[in-house]
Amino acid sequence: MKLRIEHALIVTMNDRDQVIEDGAVVVNGNRLEYVGPADGCPRQDGDRVIDGSRFIAIPGLIDAHNHSPANIFRGLMPARPLEIWRAYWRAALRACGDELFYVSALLGAMEMLKTGCTTNVDHFFGNQNSRYTGAGQAIRAMRDLGLRHVVALTVTDRAYESTIPIDAPKDDTSAEVSRMTSAETKDTQGWLDEIEAFIDELHDPDGLTTCCPGPSAVQRCTDDLLQGVAAISEQRGLPLHIHLAETKSQSLMGPRLYGTTLLKHLDDLGVVRPNLSTAHSLWIEPEDVEIIVERGATPVHNPASNLRLGSGLAPIPHFLAAGGRVALGADGACSNDSQNMFDAMRLAALIHNTRDHDFNHWITARQALSMTTRWGARAFGLDCGVLEPGRLADIVLLKRNTAAFTPLNDVVTQLVFCENGSSVDTVLVNGEIVVDGGRLTKVDEAAVLAEVNRLYDPLRPAIQNEMQDAAVMEPSLAEMYFQVFG
Ligand SMILES: [Zn+2]
Fold it and tell me: How far is the CA of 440 from the centre of ligand 1 (A)?
């Protein structure tokens, strides 16, 4: 049976930026069969019909950088810069296992779907005691909810202390530093084998799942690992996702380890290709921007996280001025904390304005919406992010009779600057209705929330203990941080 949405205002995000005032969409299976004027729409008896006259239809939003295990740690982490914050966040993970990784992914995915996000890029690292560090649990959760997902398995094979600009950890911290290393790293071949097995077992492009390698960061991986994962992605036609220069401390590791920038080193290894997406891409040089754009790779902007951790402002206007295409992420819920892509879009379109007085460089609403739809899809090789025939049927219907859209002056501007996700009524992913009337169709939300509490409460002491252990590193990391900023 086909599904027909009639008389909606359609924001297609196609190459012509077409907005159709009285439009129709026909969904056949998991694909769009027709997108165009309502009066030219093919109609068949037996079609299921949605009256779209109350709705604005947009492509489902894409969260291009996230860490699903962070959803259970909202409000838990201290307000600190990334290096200190990360020590606590990684410590907290040591107390968690499969059951929590499953419900944590459910938590974030529920918020995403209800606020119009239909694809999540989960740069996953959980706990090495779990198979694939728990990534299979996140996949199960997102399949259960009907959220499309790219799961990039996070890998690192360098000792923690060699990845930060610290000369020698203090004696009293060395035990904790060693625990960080042993909790996260594994030998190069071990990771390559695990990634191959992970993809073989769980990659399901015809379903909702794309599996790919997600090297943690340039400075956290040996060259063998970086080239090994790039080869896997290339051979299998998969994306490759990595953190790049999120903080000033990280960027200093380029000259230290390689005598050049992190990005140039990655490019020297031949890894910067169209399938590469680089989360943050913040403390980088103008030449790095040019290389990323020339190679057709995609930076992923995470405005809320960069503000929350004091990391800085990514050179997003420079990427756009150079002709680059940028994707947008919420980042994990213990560095954002919202998983709402309308928040991310609004921030992306706002936070760069005060840095550049030349208003010609300001990010437009259309660019912000492109980051969250067609450019995000392109970065991960997904056939969604645009409403046009042949594409995957990932559609969001927003109510028009809300404050955000009344009166309606410019739909794209109002989507980015006025909407907060509360107008989302209906969401289709892969042709299936997963949100209907603002409610999730495939899980009982209240039951999930109760289950999260049931599983999380007994673990509170263990999580607190792990974070207390990590606290011993804070003075050294704080000293490093202040040194970095001179
Ligand atoms: Zn991240």
Answer: 27
